Automatic annotation (TrEMBL):
Organism of this sequence: Mycolicibacterium vanbaalenii (strain DSM 7251 / JCM 13017 / BCRC 16820 / KCTC 9966 / NRRL B-24157 / PYR-1) (Mycobacterium vanbaalenii)
This protein's UniProt keywords: Transferase
Lineage of source species: Bacteria, Bacillati, Actinomycetota, Actinomycetes, Mycobacteriales
Record-level Gene Ontology MF annotations: CoA-transferase activity
Protein name: L-carnitine dehydratase/bile acid-inducible protein F
Length: 383
């Protein structure tokens, strides 16, 4: 088994900021890539958005920039641009999160970068595809959640339009950028050809939302609205019990009949004996199950569902994840010694039998590696 990781030897020049792009390159770093985070003199805004051990090292920034090197380059100056061109010339991947016009204005659009390094994989991460009418718009997670239908789906579910309690659009787009970049690297490994990759947030989240919600609207003529009824049923929620809540999905017919045979609720009916029958009136079904689950404690129900082979779980807070017995047993968290003391990082969730990933270090201070990075391409650091 190698400790180098599957991306060992891959050099990444990272001009992304905040979360979406940095999450993509964080995983690259975990997998062994050398990621150079190029920052402006003021640094990535994410450095300052939450608590941290010192100013400029917020918890959010620390997590998505672990294991990277930070180089400060002022791309408004000729010196900064010269240094970035030198870095690009030795890179396998160039990734940025600026709008197309902004990166082109700096002189680092794909055509210019590919002229310096024809085999480079060049990944764009921005709000909207550049061939559409929204191309020039700025975008953030909240605006994309609203625009892709996520906030409206929440309204269908809860009665109130709202965001989900996570920066879902940023993280989904970060994972999509990683997938796309890896596929382009795979193509290059087979052919030697570099290429440009585009990962627009709106299109990515539209595709994500429409996996299930395209539903009847896909057909001509439409067979129904663009909604998957089960996911927006008002009674789809963690169910109250005698002493708390439980999450359970009694999904297929085998599970359903096991539940009915064990509990024998008064409302049991042949009408709900098949998946098709339940799907046709899913909100009522969830309501009936919810009424029944109020009758016993969470522990009682968990024991029964475990015996019946029906997926169920208690509600956990994000704080409780840090002490979860399963995550502890599999070694999910990785403690890394940093200049500020130990940091307990959420680790690499995927396993590789030969080249596993790992957290390769803490997050860098702003410009911590500027001199080192520039020396590697033969440039003296600025005064």
């Amino acid at each position: 088994m190698s400790s180098a990781g599957p991306l060992s030897g891959v050099n990444v020049v990272d001009l992304t900021a905040v979360v979406a792009g940095p999450y993509c390159t964080q995983i690259m770093a975990d997998m062994g890539a050398d990621v150079v985070k190029v920052e402006p003199p003021q640094g990535d805004n994410a450095r300052y958005i939450s608590v941290g051990p010192e100013p400029g090292l917020s918890g959010v920034f620390t997590n998505v920039n672990r294991g990277k090197r930070s180089a400060v380059l002022d791309l408004q100056t000729d010196e900064g641009k010269r240094a970035l061109r030198a870095l690009v010339g030795q890179a396998d991947v160039f990734i940025h999160s600026m709008r197309a016009a902004a990166i082109a204005k700096l002189g680092f659009d794909y055509q210019t970068v590919a002229a310096l390094n024809p085999s480079i994989v060049y990944t764009n991460c921005y709000g909207y595809g550049r061939t559409g009418p929204y191309a020039a718009r700025p975008a953030y997670d909240d605006t994309i959640q609203a625009e892709c239908g996520l906030a409206a789906v929440q309204e269908e579910l809860t009665g109130t339009a709202g965001y989900v309690g996570s920066i879902m659009a940023d993280k989904v787009c970060g994972l999509s950028a990683l997938n796309a970049t890896m596929m382009a690297l795979f193509h290059r490994a087979r052919t030697g050809e570099g290429q440009e990759v585009e990962v627009p947030m709106f299109e990515t989240m539209a595709a994500f939302m429409l996996v299930e919600h395209a539903n009847g609207a896909m057909f001509d003529p439409p067979l129904g609205p663009a909604l998957y009824p089960r996911t927006v049923a008002r009674n789809r929620r963690p169910y109250p019990t005698l002493d708390g809540h439980i999450a359970v999905l009694i999904y297929n017919d085998k599970q359903w009949h096991a539940f009915i045979d064990a509990v024998k609720p008064a409302w049991a009916s042949d009408r709900y004996a098949t998946m098709a029958g339940r799907a046709a009136d899913i909100d009522t079904v969830y309501g009936l199950v919810g009424d029944t689950l109020r009758e016993q404690t969470t522990a009682d129900w968990l024991a029964l569902f475990d015996k019946l082979g029906i997926p169920a779980s208690p509600l956990r807070t994000t704080d409780e994840l840090f002490t979860d017995a399963h995550l502890e047993a599999v070694g999910f968290f990785e403690t890394v010694q940093t200049a500020h003391g130990p940091v307990r990082f959420p680790g690499v969730p995927t396993g590789f039998s030969r080249t596993p990933g790992r957290v390769r270090g803490g997050a860098p201070r702003l410009g911590e590696h500027t001199a080192e990075v520039l020396a590697e391409v033969g440039i003296a650091p600025p005064d």
